[in-house]
Design a protein that fits this description.
The structure is a homotetramer. Chain A has seven helices and 13 strands. Chain A is α+β, with helices and mostly antiparallel strands and about 260 residues long. Chain A has a single domain, classed as Glutamine Phosphoribosylpyrophosphate, subunit 1, domain 1 (4-Layer Sandwich). In chain A, strands 3-2-4-1-10-9-11 form a seven-stranded antiparallel β-sheet. A six-stranded antiparallel β-sheet of chain A has the order 5-6-7-8-12-13, with helices on one face. Chains in contact: A-B, A-C, A-D, B-C, B-D, C-D. Chains A, B, C, D: It holds the Pfam family GATase_4. Chains A, B, C, D: InterPro entries: EgtC-like, Gamma-glu_amide_hydrolase, GATase_2_dom, Ntn_hydrolases_N. Chains A, B, C, D: Keywords: Glutamine amidotransferase. Chains A, B, C, D: This is Class II glutamine amidotransferase. Chains A, B, C, D: It comes from Paracoccus mangrovi.
Chain lengths: ~260, ~260, ~260, ~260
């Protein structure tokens, strides 16, 4: 499992979400409370949007709490839209290319969850990556494969549908060749304009997902765990949901990779 | 705080202490049970003696649990005498030069503990390092200073006395310029023949120290925490003690830096 | 391009080949003279055989000249058979999993050369890795793919034939989908008993390969570049050759992946 | 020796100086032409000013040419004032804390040069750091000591004088305890408003220093080596000079640490 936090709204210093809150993402890197692994110290990363279409990307292999570059970057960079992630490896190596977020062109993507027995069918999952996106396959994680599959499924035109089709393909593979849990998946991704998030599991244990508008920040945080433990107004996204965040608006719809699969 | 484990006896693969036991040092790097910080993931290191007088030294900044080099080295290297350490920084940076063990010539040294308010008197502590040993000052930790001070105090001729005199000097400085707790200190060090360990605190909270002879290994482990949680025959070293391990023998004596200080 | 050095003979400290000679491998990492890229600083690695069937493996991303762990390991480890490599990336990331040597079970492998346009057909090359060896696919290099393909082709039973068949398959792919030069390849590999090396190119520019017996060491070095620039008795292996080194003996035979391909 | 580049002017993407020019700083990291060490691959760093008084700081231990984070950061960050450095160690370890620039509060500082025999008098140099700045002493370089000494000498009130006094103190120490060449020093530093640079040596071999206004960028680059090898209008700063860059203006004055020393 991993933990992540994203933000959309008025530009803020990244530290305002990543390290300053009482239960910030950095805090969660050594003391997460709503998942099985309190320690998420197998690298970290962040993607932030600014003047260019492509996000900036900074990822490294140290625990987030001890990286002096992360501290300086989050204290000096401002962004209206960013994603940040702390990793707990479920098997693959601690290397920069296995750290989230992943970025291709204007898109960035990060993931928390589990594809049961992925190591046994990695070869078959990778074979589903389209030629066009294969040069972007740099690491060994299931998460990067899902992202590259979704890009080929049309993330540009239909974010929810593309991600559902990619998830369905993965789930079929997991059912054929993997072990339970087939798919547990909470993800966030962005094209630099909208922020998308989804929560899904093929069993009863979808990883947690919350969001909350902050008047002080003038923006919304979308997170694995609430950033302050005494704030009671975080909204929990129910399982099998897909959210679109744009400006201060939220729209939420069912996320049904099964339906997509049936239609395939 | 940190955790460490050392071994003296018949040559064994290093993994037999560092990673294979149920509560091995690697396990303690993310789940220590007898100290305030369960996570000790700010780097690690090991020193082992072989054919040369100088120990081999391998230190790196990743958590011990995720380092593939550590896994391979401990699985293939055999030694009759080695020290290993997982670090939880009390402030200084996560860098190789701040990782234990430290080594100068034939000597290696590692430490778990705290010198209260050290950051406020680091300058004065470093000024106590003898010219001869200053080129070996590579990092910023209090532990490395203590080691270099002890070398100048005559570690070669009188290990217990040299370490007591160095500790006393440090304690004087801590009382003058630091904050309580002045000194908490559990350390192990070796010249390649004997293994030394000490447990001391200027208050009531000396870090833990245990040892146990293993017939299976044909050697003795000296550790911060017992390597198996169901083994009941680990011997706890009382505070203010200095131990000498040679072959299968143990000798234990009071460790009294105050006395050394008074005599100085 | 990269540079490498291997050794078989009486046990020696690894530094005796890797860092002490006047034109040692570490020296070649910043001043290689017989290849296009004098700087080979995109990581390094070494595999050495000792008491276990599996080799020890140490790889890291820093330039070889500045890694303090490498310095200590090579100064204290002795081995009768080892491989060492300094890397100049031809495109893939500087990460441990892209550093040579690669190791699977008792086998280790390292490579210097070029598969023209590999990035464009990586997907198809990876698809040729057998299921059995896919979990060992950790990085993104062509070299690791060649090694895993050779394992599936029967490296255990027929090292020369297996490597020829794997090379032939790679060359077919390179001709179909890559760009010239199709294949340039100098490699060394070992099962812990024999040391194998080959030199091959589909054009006129096979990377260099030399070997020399040293009475002082009681062993033979097999290298990209002679370890001393004033030693005149290094034997150059001609292109399209496969060498077997065992004890003090050398046997050399043609390496003809084309023939293997024709027979396939 | 090292290489560095700085910029002041209209905000530009950092890559416009650091990696895009034909003889960019990244290019100089493996092929510098105006110094003794063509390879400057022992880490790198950059400091850039934005919305906060303190600069952002990113430093790492890989060669600049292979760091994917550096590539992304320089492609997405814009700044009106920044410093960047590629390092060739003259002895101290490759670690983040030894990489330039160094930053304290609003000040950033980087250096290229040599204090002959520094290792022999490091202890005495460090003893000259004022108590107030000692907590900022994180690495082991002479450069960081010079910066911290200059801060205590009044960098805020009198940048040229403070740096001259610090250099003079260092030069006295070098003459007393070091070996020739006593001091060779080209440095750049900034408070976020002005950019300062100096070129000085106690012998005839001061490291090179150039600057050039670019209409295209709307700003001035100040560098160790011209960023394009065919641009003929780079201005070479003569030895023993101190430059102040503010907006598009340059003011240049003698840099005479000897005079400062005499007056001390």
């Amino acid at each position: 499992m991993c933990r992540w936090a994203a933000y959309i709204g008025s530009p803020i210093f990244l530290e305002d979400v990543i390290s300053l809150p009482g239960h910030s993402l950095v805090r969660q890197s050594h003391g997460a409370t709503r998942c099985h692994t309190p320690v998420n110290a197998d690298g970290f990363g962040m993607a932030w949007y600014g003047e260019r279409a492509e996000p900036g990307l900074y990822r490294d292999i140290m625990p987030a709490w001890s990286d002096c570059n992360l501290k300086s970057l989050t204290a000096t960079l401002k962004s209206h839209l960013f994603l940040a992630h702390v990793r707990a490896s479920t098997g693959t190596a601690t290397s920069r290319n296995n750290c989230h977020p992943f970025a291709v062109g204007k898109w960035s993507f990060m993931h928390n969850g589990q594809f049961g027995g992925y190591d046994g069918y990695r070869r078959h999952a990778e074979a589903l990556i389209a030629d066009e996106y294969y040069p972007h396959r740099r690491g060994a994680t299931d998460s990067e494969v899902l992202f590259l599959m979704a890009l080929a499924e049309g993330l540009d035109q239909d974010p929810a549908g593309a991600m559902a089709r990619a998830t369905a393909k993965f789930e079929i593979l997991a059912r054929q060749r993997g072990i339970a849990p087939y798919v547990r998946l909470t993800a966030a991704f962005s094209d630099g304009h909208r922020l998308y998030a989804l929560r899904y599991a093929s069993d009863e244990q979808a990883p947690t997902l919350y969001h909350r508008w902050s008047d002080r920040r003038g923006g919304r945080a979308v997170v694995s765990e609430p950033l302050e433990q005494d704030e009671t107004d975080w909204l929990e996204v129910p399982p099998q949901s897909f959210c679109i965040f744009e400006g201060d608006r939220v729209s939420q719809q069912p996320f049904l990779p099964d339906a997509a699969r049936a239609a395939a």
